[in-house]
Amino acid sequence: MEPERIQTVYLMGIGGIAMGTLASMLLEKGFRVMGSDQNLYPPMSHHLERLKVPVYLGYDGENLRRASPDLVVVGNVIRRDNPEALHALDHGLPTLSMPEAIARFFLQEKRGLVVAGTHGKSTTSALLAWLLFHGGLDPSAFVGAFLKDWEASHRLGAGPFMVIEGDEYDTAFFDKGPKFLHYRPSIGVLTSIEFDHADIFKDMDAIRSAFSQFVQLIPESGTLILNVDDPECRSLAHLCKGTVMGYGRSADAPWRLLNLSHHEDHVKMRFMDPVDGAEHELKSPLPGEHNAMNALAVIAACRRAGLNTSTLGEGLERFKGIKRRQDRLGEVGGILVMDDFAHHPTAVEETIRAIKLSHPGRRLIAAFEPRTNSSRRNVFQEAYSRAFGDADLVCIKEPPGLEAVPGPERLDCGRLVRDIESRHSRACLFSAADPMIYFLLTEAKTGDVILCMSNGSFDGLPVRLVQALESSFPHPPSDEPGGP
């Protein structure tokens, strides 16, 4: 069906960040949008409420009959036996995957700037979109997180570029290839390659195959910007038909990070710019060396797009970041609570290290929920036991759905806690969020930083913890006149 003949679009699995972002973009383009999901949680639940998008809770073929859509977009959370998927198939409803919809409705006549990699996709793509915007290039963007600058995870611009977060996860039940295969990058960024998504990738060779296909999408006129410090990324450079530009600390990296100093509200990064052959120093609000590398990749991409270093420095300092990435939720009684999406062991380790470096002298309490399909499996059992080395106290919450993982493949949370304690830190195990909140309230002291990490809602723990701390600490007396 041609786009001009479509009026109503129905999104199955609308509560995911990618699908909810697509809903926003379709609304902005003038379509009537509705959808369904099993569960909704912030920030996407609040976002859809603000947009007044009708959402059916629970899947039922009757929902589609009532909605009578012209097009159904199927999220990758939807299985083939989903009652709505069966209804769409049985009744021959026009159907697209989410990446197909992005390509068809938004990527036409745009130059795709696609950010891929195991880690850092959301932050890197958000920063890339923001700097292009700050530089006056009016980009479109599709990002897997909410930019605080825009209070949105997307942007529709009139400029020539579209920034897309390129996810390697599978596309839909009828298309098991990675999402990023639909995005036609003219500039591709490859941040890192590690094993992840054990539910869909059999082994590391399957991961390599997926990213190999991504690299080969870049045309001869295009550019691949890759992390040469990552041997897996580096090994794919020869597959690219276009120009390859490396970044990292390696001596042979054209975009080379020379020095990094950490401060409480920023880092200073000094790097070599091969475009002008000069060294530059910029301030970034994003803590940690991993984020300095992400910023360096973005700077390389923006320079390729024609922006100068001075403009990039101004934009970088003004970037407010994205929600759920080292997100400061509140500081009560000198206790700082932060929220982060980290779930892969490498991301957990790098995030903890970044927070420790940016808050020297403060005790760091790491609260973690291993919620993803891979996290709940013992494929990361050993890696998790090493990932918390920079935390002073570790609190592990058993994730929901752990019983759905076969016993021999299941993460042993009790063993994880014992291993963490034997290696470096005091650690505690909790079966639910409520006892963890109570423990943190009694344990936390002025000066502590509590870093909450989960790729899910964490049962609302981060926000609830801030609220509980606010209730526990007395409010200062009012300065307002009056009273007896």
Model description:
With 484 residues, this protein is α/β, with parallel strands linked by helices. It has 3 domains: 3-98, NAD(P)-binding Rossmann-like Domain (Rossmann fold); 106-318, Mur-like, catalytic domain (UDP-N-acetylmuramoyl-L-alanine:D-glutamate ligase, 3-Layer(aba) Sandwich); 327-472, Protein-Tyrosine Phosphatase, Chain A, CATH 3.90.190.20. Helices cover 32% and strands 25% of the residues. It has helices at 17-28, 44-51, 61-67, 83-90, 98-105, 121-134, 204-217, 231-234, 289-304, 309-318, 345-358, 381-387, 413-423, 433-443, 461-472, and strands spanning 8-12, 32-37, 55-57, 71-74, 95-97, 111-116, 140-147, 152-155, 161-165, 170-172, 175-178, 185-190, 223-227, 243-248, 255-262, 267-273, 278-284, 327-332, 335-340, 364-368, 393-397, 426-430, 449-453. The strands form 4 sheets. A 10-stranded mixed sheet has the order 8-7-9-6-12-13-14-15-16-17, sandwiched between helices. The protein has a 6-stranded mixed sheet with strand order 18-19-23-20-21-22, sandwiched between helices. Strands 3-2-1-4-5 form a 5-stranded parallel sheet, with helices on both faces. Strand 13 (223-227), helix 8 (231-234) and strand 14 (243-248) form a beta-alpha-beta unit. The longest helix has 16 residues, at 289-304. The termini are far apart.
Brief sketch in words of this structure:
With 484 residues, the chain is α/β, with parallel strands linked by helices. It is 32% helix and 25% strand. It folds into 3 domains: 3-98, NAD(P)-binding Rossmann-like Domain (Rossmann fold, 3-Layer(aba) Sandwich), CATH 3.40.50; 106-318, Mur-like, catalytic domain (UDP-N-acetylmuramoyl-L-alanine:D-glutamate ligase); 327-472, Alpha-Beta Complex (Protein-Tyrosine Phosphatase, Chain A), CATH 3.90.190.
